[in-house]
Amino acid sequence: MAKHDPDLSLLFSALADPTRRSILTRLAQGPAKVTELADPTGLRLPTVMRHLSVLKTAGLIATTKDGRIRTCEIRPEALHPARTWLDQQRATWEARLDRLDAFVVNAMKERDQ
Fold it and tell me: With pLDDT > 70 as the criterion, what percentage of the chain qualifies?
């Protein structure tokens, strides 16, 4: 059975939800107050707070509180494990496809002889 990185699973789980991805897209433009993040979603504040909690647990955002105002900012470095994993998968599949291509080319040459 393959080993699974629990942090990577947490990261992909957080990214699986479209609301959380839209929050991250907004935060890529700069820090934002929770109310600013909640407005475009149409969701109630407690629901948005749960989404933010998932993002924070995955390490994708950091929050600060100044009085009653909570501000969120993206932590793009948290995506590094996902990118590393995806790059490894890409390399594996490119190598497999290269071997398949070589096999097909060789088989075609043998057939033509």
Answer: 95
